[in-house]
């Protein structure tokens, strides 16, 4: 009996160990779509006031940042804490821009249930939230995508947009031609799309039904001018290394349906929004929380739409919860996913 008891205790202990979730467990369109659906659920709760997403703590040292964010999601009975570093010079060193870890907890017991690769989860959920915005804003038949930037986050954006719209062709521009060509080779092989490398951001953006920007710019000069964007296009604006960094012309927001994750967060961290407000181009009432689109309270009416993301801790919580639900209570050996 004592041997059986010990064996049961050991199995019980193993079952309660945190699951390790890495890149392999996050790969595949099925997982991506589950994360997009989880984000929709979380943003509906955020819009209804059922949850909140506290501001991140950011510690700057030179151009580098150390960030910490936490949020709880009572509907799923989970909370998360994410610690990440952002080092703008890392890509030049051949290193990832972002390193980090996400800790998923069970609210009822306080148990740590999963440890997730923070950089991979950040890329996945940032792509997924843009995918959600695209699903809610872009024309159903939109099949032409322009991407400004060619890094890890640009790849995540392309995966997400292709998961929700019938993309047939992709145009990419990056200030580093070699990176753009590597991106094109990856997209052609991984997604089977026709990919063109453009010499300028303008030629990439011209006529595109969907535009995604994902750069590490720290400047206030727009990389995409308002006049380049086709009327009725949808834009996902993701990059920038600080709260005043600008990827797209703030003037574009004046004539667009503007979507943000949450007004308060956008006012604090979204460079284009801050500049447009300061210039009198938009008012706070012109900013639509993403959750109101999920619930049907707001929707674009064929006009150009701009989703300006800054990333919220609740997104990490929702994405981690979705991935942990797939992984289960014990982490078995896994391949790279479908």
Q: How many beta-strand segments?
A: 14
Q: For the record, what is the CATH homologous superfamily label of the largest domain? A: NAD(P)-binding Rossmann-like Domain
Low-confidence stretches: 1-13, 328-338
Topology as H/E string?
A: HEHHEEEHEEHEHEHEHEEHEHHEHEH
* Largest β sheet strand count, sense and barrel closure: 8 strands, parallel
Q: What's the end-to-end separation, in Å?
A: 44 Å
* Structural class estimated from helices and strands: alpha/beta
Rg, Cα atoms, Å = 20 Å
Number of domains: 2
Quick take:
With 338 residues, this protein is α/β, with parallel strands linked by helices. It has 13 helices and 14 strands. The protein has an eight-stranded parallel beta sheet with strand order 9-8-7-10-11-14-12-13.
If you had to describe this structure to a student in words, what would you say it looks like?
With 338 residues, the protein is of the alpha/beta class. The chain has two domains: 12-121 and 315-327, 2-Layer Sandwich (ornithine cyclodeaminase, domain 1), CATH 3.30.1780; 139-311, NAD(P)-binding Rossmann-like Domain (Rossmann fold, 3-Layer(aba) Sandwich). The protein is built from 13 helices and 14 strands. The protein has helices at residues 2-15, 23-26, 29-48, 90-93, 118-137, 152-164, 177-191, 201-205, 251-254, 263-269, 271-278, 290-294, 313-327; strands at residues 19-21, 57-61, 64-73, 78-86, 98-106, 112-117, 144-148, 169-173, 194-197, 210-213, 234-237, 257-260, 287-289, 305-308. The strands form two sheets. An eight-stranded parallel sheet has the order 9-8-7-10-11-14-12-13. The chain has a six-stranded mixed sheet with strand order 1-6-5-4-3-2. A hairpin with a 5-residue loop joins strand 5 and strand 6. Helix 3 (29-48) packs across helix 13 (313-327) and helix 5 (118-137) packs across helix 13. The longest helix has 20 residues, at 29-48. The chain is globular and about 55 Å long. The model is unreliable at 1-13 and 328-338 (pLDDT under 50).
